[in-house]
Each structure stands twice: as C-alpha cells, then as structure tokens.
Amino acid sequence: MSIKTLSASRRLILAASAALALCTPAWADAPPKVKFATSAGDFVVEVYPDKAPKTVENFLQYVRDKHYDGTVFHRVIENFMVQGGGFDSKYAEKKTRPPVRHEGREALEKGGPRNTVGTLAMARTNDPHSASAQFFINVKDNAFLDPTVIPPGDPVPKFEHRGRVFENTPRANLLNAPELFGYTVFGKVISGMEVVNQIKAVPTGPGGPFPSDVPKTPVVINSATLVK
Questions:
Q1: CA–CA distance from 34 to each of 83, 174, 189, 195 (Å)?
Q2: How far apart are CA 193 and CA 40, in angstroms?
Q3: What is the tens place of the pLDDT at every residue in 26-41?
Q4: Strands (DSSP E) found in the chain
Q5: CA 189/CA 196 separation, integer angstroms
Q6: Structure pTM?
C-alpha cells in the first residue's frame, strides 16, 4: 500500500468516526438524567434507552416539551407508589401525544430493572399499549407489577401464573394476554429519594375527579429538565 493510499484511508476512517460521533446519542456512555423540581423538594432520575428505547424517548420528549411543568402527583399511596405527570393543579388532564408501545418484556430481557423501590415506570389503562405521559415511582417492591416473561415453546407446554396452570397453550395467547404485560420500568431515582418518601407520606383524600389518594396539599412538579 502506498503512503498516499494509506493517508486517504486514514482520512476516511477519521471522517467515518466524526460522522458516527454526530449520530451517536449524547447518552451513549451514560444514561440520560432528568431533574424534577417539586413543591416538596428536588429529585433526579436516570432513564435507560438501551432497555426501553421507545418508552424513554417518549418520556424525554414530554420533558423537552415542558409537559410535566405545573403537573401534580395526583395519586399517592404510601405503601405502593406515587403517580403523576397527567393533570395540572386544577385536575385538568393535559393533552398527550399518541400512546407508546409496551416494552416491558423486552426491557427485562435486556437486563432492565423490575418494579422495585425507587424505580420509574409508565402508568397506563387496562390496555397494555396505552401509556402516554403519566409515570409512577415505586415506593416499595411491587413484583406483581412486573411483566411476565413467557417460557419458550409453541404451544407452551406448561405455564403457571398466580396459582393458575396453563398447559399446551398457544404462545400468542400468552403473549397477548393483558394480565401478563405488567408495567414497563424505564428508569430509577438516583438522588432525592428522601423527597419521594416525603411525597408518599402526605395526607390524602378525594380531589378533583378522584375519590381518594389525592394529596390534600398539592405536590406540584414545578419543572422537569434534562440534566446536562
């Protein structure tokens, strides 16, 4: 190989490296972090795009759009979780984008966290693919919220869930069973968990359209911002 050709090759490698750097997300080496400044104090979460990419991008877009600013934790259960991100301080529901596809099983298969103390998960309706902006923080280990990983086989020879045994069940029936999806965990609190613990302990009762579990003194998210 001539010196001229070698030099050209090096230029190509450098150009490719520069292009890759431009295309590589800023969080390639470290998870993105979001700071929540609330009326109860501040806490920081990190999220895992390598485990639940669509869920994380959905969440971060709401952060960029300032959707969470001025919303409240509208559902607080001390021995369960704190939930927010959907309603303002007058309990008016904020407009959201289309829902994101459920990624709970995929996240677990990639080594993502389960619904344990301090983890961040998407709230949803009975439809597994209905998560939009609302999220919750687990304040205890909630294994019953974890997605159920379906064992191999089609049909699946034997499968047990909460005391019920299924035998020779078509795989698609189990994969699409709403009760087996659980909730997608996509991050965790890395600082300020004491603030979350303060939030979980606030007195609650009815509020707005909700018959219970609403903080009597609103806990407001003043801002949610990406940590540089």
A1: 16, 35, 9, 15
A2: 11
A3: 445 799 999 999 999 9
A4: 33-38, 41-47, 71-77, 81-88, 119-122, 135-138, 156-161, 164-169, 185-191, 204-207, 210-215, 220-226
A5: 9
A6: 0.85
